Structures are given as C-alpha cells and as structure tokens.
Amino acid sequence: MFLRSLAKYGSFFCKSQYSIERNFIRHVQVSQRKFNDKSEKAIVRKDSFDSVSDKNRQTYLDTIKMFINQDHIYRRGHVEFIYSALKNMEEFGVSKDLEVYKALIDILPKGKFLPQNMIQAEFMHYPKQQQCIIDLLEQMEENGVMPDIEMEPQLLNIFGKRGYPLRRYWRMMYWMPKFKNLSPWPVPDPFPTDTFDLAKYAIERITSVDVNSVVTVYQSSDIPESIDDTWIVSAQSKTQQTLLSEHELDKPIYVEGPFTVWIRGNPINYFVLRGEPKPLIEGDSDPDDVSKLRPSLFGLRPPVTKFLKVIPSVHEQEDAVIFSVCATGTSSKDSLLSWIRHLEKDGYPNLGKIPVVFKLRSGTKEVINPDEGKDPKDQLDDK
Amino acid sequence: MLNLQRSLTCLICRRRSVHTSPVLTTFWEKDDKGGYRDWKKMPPLKDQLREGLKDLKTEIGVWAQEMKERFEGDPILIFRPGEVDVQWRFGTTESLNKWMATSDADNNEGFSTCSLTLTKEGKGLFSGTLDKRIPKDGKVKRSGYCSMKSLRVRKSFKRDSHLDWTPYNMLVMRVRGDGRSYLLNIHAKGYHDLTWNDMYHFVLFTRGGPYWQVARIPFSKFYFGSKGRIQDRQVSVPLDRIASFGITAGERWGGDFHLEIDYIGVEFDPNHREEFAYEMYKTESGIAST
C-alpha cells in the first residue's frame, strides 16, 4: 500500500520528505518521469536497418559497426539489435554469409556474461542473450550455413564453456557435415539462377537413371515452321533410340506433360515422349513349381529349357515405355512440336509416320509462389 | 537438474490463476498425442459403445487366429538375403485404410493440404500442397508440413503391439517422387511417457521424373530424434519396437508435392555390417542431453 502511494505521489514525496534514502527516491522519480514524458522514447529504438537506403552486404556490416561504435563502455540493446538484424538478413542478401553471422555474435561483450559460480552456470546465465544467440544459430541452420572453427572461441569467450549457444554450436558442427553431402543428386554449386541452366540440370538429374543418356540442346528456331524461338533440352540414350526405332508405325506415341520436378524449391516443367507399355511376358515355367520335375535317370541330365528373354531396360516402365524427356523454355505446344521435328531430323525419319498424340494438361501451369497466391486474411477467416 | 527445477516451478505456478511465464512441461507428458488430442471430436459415448460392440466379432476372430498361430508355433527362421518382405503395398483401397495423412492445417497451425489416394495405375499417391505461411496467432513460429503415417500396429481387442524387424537391416521402398526430399520416420513408441515421442529419422531423396526408383536405406543410418529435435545421445533403431512408420513432406520451399509409392518393405542384406552410423564422443557430465 505504501509503495503504491509512493509511486503515485512519488514526486511529491521527493520534494517534501528528504529524510528518505536518496537512491530510493531517485528510483521512484525516474520511473514516473518516464511514464509521464511521452515525447522522449528512450526504450523503443528505431530499427536501424530500416533507414538504410542502399541494402547490400557492405551497408549491413556498416550498420553493425555503427552500433558497436555508438557506445564503447555502456553498450546496450544487443539482443534487440541482433533480432532486428536477423529479421533484415533476406533484404540485404546476406542470409547465407557466415562472416555476417560471426560479426553479429561479435556484438556481445566478451567476459561479461560468463557465469561466476556453479548455480549461475547451471541455470542459464543471462537467458535472453543466450536465447538470442541460439535463435541466430537456428537461423544459420535453416539457411544451410555451417559454422566454422572460429566461432567456437567466440562463443566460449562470451558465454563460457557451459553456455547453451556453445552446445548448440557443437551439435551443429557434429551433424551438419554429416548431412551436407548426403544427397545422391547434389545440386550444382553455385546454384544456377538462369532457367535454362536449371532445366538442363533437371533433365540431367532425371536421366541419371541411365548413364548412357545424352543431353542435347536444340533451338526451336532451327525448325522453319516454328513460331516460338526458345531452347529445348532433350535427353535420350542409346537404348531409347533402339526402342524408338523398333516401335511399330501404326501405334501412336504420346507427348505428355507438363510434369514438375523440384530442384531446391524451383519447379521445372518437363515433358515425356512415351509409348504404350510393353505387355508383360509371363515365363511359362514357374521356378518354384516342383510338380513337373523330371528326375535324372542313368546320369542323364534334364534338358535345359531354351527360354530366352531380353532383359527389359530401365526405360520400359510398367506404365509406359519412355523414349525421351525434354524441357523447353516456353513449355508451349509449338515448342514441343519443334522438339519432335528435331528428333525426327536427328535420325528417326520414321517419326513423321508414327501418329504423335499430344496429351497436355489444360494450359501450362504458371510457376507461382504459393505464398503469394492467396490472401492470408481470407484463409484465416475460413478457419 | 534444470529440468527438475523447471517442473517444480511449474507445479507451483499451475496453482496460480495468472501465469507470469509460459508453462514448461519438460519431461512429464500428459498425453501421448502431445496435447493435440481433441476429445470434442470423438463421437458420443453411446455411439462409441455401439461401434465397439460391432468390432467385437472381428476382434474375437483376430484373437482366435493369434491363439492358433501361437499353438502352431511356426515362425519364419530363415531370411534369405536379397528378398524384400513387403510390409505395406499400395494398390487397393483397403491398403490405404492402414494409413492416415495429416497436415499442419488439421491442428490449425498452417495452411498445407495433403491426401493419400490411388493413381490410375494402382499405386499409392501421397500428394498435396506445402504452404509455408504462418498463421497469425502469435504462437506458431514456422509451418508447412504434410505427413502420412501408418496406423499403430495392434493385437486383437485393439491392444497396442509392435512390429518386429530384428532379422532385417534395410528399409526398401519403391517410389517415384518429384525431386523433393522427404523425411522417413520410424516411430518406436514405448510404454513410458519418456519414450512416447521417440522417432528415428532419415531422408528419402527422390530423383524426380518418370522413372521409378528403389530406395534402400539401412536402419543403421536412422538417427534418433524426439519431437523433431535430434537428440544428443544417439541410439540405433530398436527394431523390435516399431510402432508405426511415416513419411513427411516438409521441405523449406512451399508448393505442390507428389510422391508415388509402390511398396514399403524390409530386407536382410548380409553385406551390410554397420550397426550404427553415428559415432559418439564422451562429453563432460551435464553438457549433453540438457
């Protein structure tokens, strides 16, 4: 009760009762002044990254440097600054830059947050600061940035050897190298930004099922009747060429698509040139059937059955025989027609005689970012 | 120590009407669904009783079969190398009944949708849309996952049981993906609440394209996680305690996904000698697993 009235009439008490201890009075005074004075915003600091006009790596690092140089002795607001820096990484294009993360960790003072006794060490000394760096490391992990050996002494000097950020660092250094090269189809590094390079990589990846596949790049403008002028990445192997030349002329072949293959979040449309699946030839002898065994008599060996069968290649899938796979720049029907013409020119004069059916899905799907497609408000209202 | 302290403070703060800090239930699990079980969605008790009595006949049949098998005592003793024992084959609508597909939208934690259906060639198709948008409820930090999970293995009268994959050392899947990578989850739920969230994970990389691929993943490669976090003290999959199996699509990039599955099986490969792929280092006490 006394405290409440003190807070309310703090300034009055300060003026009238000088006998109360000085520190205590000052404390009450300060808090009241802060609540009354709305113009002076001492706590809420403006996001220093918003005001930067030219957003690149250098200005990002400059902003960090400015923050450090603001106050050498009583630097404050580290946590808020680091959180706002983490939020603005994408805009500055530094979300995959290890040096930037290290510069952010470097903001925290060395030695100040070290636990001084056992209890402090056990109960997460300076939890806000530790959690902030844990969140930073988590963001690193999400962006696929692996820490390096220099980060360990950095974290050690800030939080000590029992700090939680250091433990997280150790975990990252244990697991991330293990998972880094796990994929059997590693994406090229640096990651291609051009659609053509991506499409070429996608087709190479699809046809990695057959090592003899050859990826060819055609230009649709080489065909005189073509309307589009775009590239066509086509792939075919020796086996597929044989299969196509063996194809009966009266049976149709199909151009199907577009199907999607995802390369690191980038959807690439591809088309398939396929024929009807080959009928499954059931072997007339069941190897597990023992009812018709002919026992060998007088050392005569049982006759070896002459049952020869060509081992089906990987292209003879159960739902289709795949002759070729392609991706084009426009994914239009015209470019696919040019693709067939190119294949015809490339050594299948018979392809002109085979009926080619285009089974394209209604309209080529636009590559859109699903996150922008719908208004999040509508979705929330639906719920 | 820290955990104990947290849970103790929790017990104290639960009595208060107003929480000044978020409640931390660190190791005591109230519910095997991790708080996602909604009793309101259950049918009324009368209907439940009626349905239960309907199941009684089939359950007695299952029990009789179990008893018969027990007296026959004819277990498989030889597991020939290179032979895949199919655990789940897709192709019929009954085969889909052994699975359930869930997404974050089911728990109001996101906007992804997914389904498990059959293709016209008669294979299983796990497809949907990953949506990375975060609902603005202030609690969810990140979202965008879809998951298919096999139903819990059961004995007669709906008693929980486990699959025993001890004779095998490979997981074999015939799939046709879309270039995305998926997470395989082996759920090894035990009796105690500490083991309710035990999961063993590994990544399934798909090539993409019109060709089927057979993925053979040794069980030794699976790493131990709990509630989606890799654990510090790693152990290999307890192959005699498999409760269910699942596939999760949760890539960082949103958009459609498409995974066709022919079968999921297990295999014994005598050439694979590795017991556990992840080496462990001795740490100071209190550093790891805290």
Automatic annotation (TrEMBL), chain A:
The cross-references to InterPro entries, in alphabetical order and at most eight, read: ECIST_C, ECSIT, ECSIT_N, TPR-like_helical_dom_sf
Q: Record's superkingdom?
A: Eukaryota
A Gene Ontology BP annotation from the UniProt entry? innate immune response
Q: What is its main location?
A: cytoplasm
* Keyword Kinase assigned: no
Q: Name one Pfam family in it.
A: ECSIT_N
Q: Which residues form the ECSIT C-terminal domain?
A: 237-361
GO CC entries: mitochondrion; nucleus
What UniProt keywords are attached to this protein's entry?
Cytoplasm, Immunity, Innate immunity, Mitochondrion, Nucleus, Transit peptide
Subcellular localization(s) per the UniProt record: Cytoplasm; Mitochondrion; Nucleus
Family recorded in the similarity comment: Belongs to the ECSIT family.
Q: Which protein are we looking at? A: Evolutionarily conserved signaling intermediate in Toll pathway, mitochondrial
Originating organism: Phyllotreta striolata (Striped flea beetle)
TrEMBL record, chain B:
| GO biological process annotation, one example | mitochondrial electron transport, NADH to ubiquinone
Q: Which GO terms describe its molecular function?
A: unfolded protein binding
One Pfam entry name: CIA30
Record-linked InterPro entries: Galactose-bd-like_sf (IPR008979), NADH-UbQ_OxRdtase-assoc_prot30 (IPR013857), NDUFAF1 (IPR039131)
Q: Which UniProt keywords apply?
A: Chaperone, Mitochondrion
List the record's Gene Ontology CC terms alphabetically.
mitochondrion
Compartments, record wording: Mitochondrion
Q: Which residues form a coiled coil?
A: none
Q: Which residues form the NADH:ubiquinone oxidoreductase intermediate-associated protein domain?
A: 88-261
Task: Tell me the PANTHER family matching this sequence.
Answer: COMPLEX I INTERMEDIATE-ASSOCIATED PROTEIN 30, COMPLEX I INTERMEDIATE-ASSOCIATED PROTEIN 30, MITOCHONDRIAL
Could you say which protein family the record assigns here?
Belongs to the CIA30 family.
* Name of the protein this chain belongs to: NADH:ubiquinone oxidoreductase intermediate-associated protein 30 domain-containing protein
Species per Swiss-Prot/TrEMBL record = Phyllotreta striolata (Striped flea beetle)
